[in-house]
Design goal:
The chain has 159 residues and is an alpha/beta fold. The chain has helices spanning 16-28, 39-49, 65-75, 92-100, 113-125, 128-150; strands spanning 8-12, 32-36, 53-56, 83-87, 105-108. Strand 4, helix 4 and strand 5 form a beta-alpha-beta unit. Helix 1 (16-28) packs across helix 5 (113-125), helix 2 packs parallel to helix 3 and helix 4 (92-100) runs antiparallel to helix 6 (128-150). It starts with 7 loop residues before the first strand and ends in a 9-residue tail after the last helix.
Amino acid sequence: MHAPAKAKILVVEDEPSIQQVLCFFLNHNGFEVLGVSNGQDAIRAIVEFDPQLIILDLIMRPISGWDVLTWLRANRPSSPLPVIVLSALVNLKEQMHGFEEGALEYITKPTQPSAIVERVRVILAMSVEQRNLLQHKRLDDQRRILARLSRKQRDEFVY
């Protein structure tokens, strides 16, 4: 009798300490994990490792996480890979751009590794339809927030 196959997670993070902690937590929670430190290695790993989910930093060289998202959209349109963006970019427009480029989640650094593991579990348990709905909901939420922030109302305090 076989043990169920472990879900494969690709962690793309150029900060070694963050990559190590994420890989450790995911591994410890029963996932098969591969960590790479740039977009070039990420694209190679997507082809060779064939992950079920990607945790992706955006600001990397020589190839950024944005480039990886663009590559994924162009090369995997029929079987989109779920992507969790993990970034220090906190600007709402950056977050919206991440969702537009295909990310399912946008988590800002720093964050608890256990929270990321939980999001990975939730996303992997979803059907493709549920993931599509989640992505559309995230985009709609971001658009609503941006619209509210762009309306200048003197008496309203917006956080």
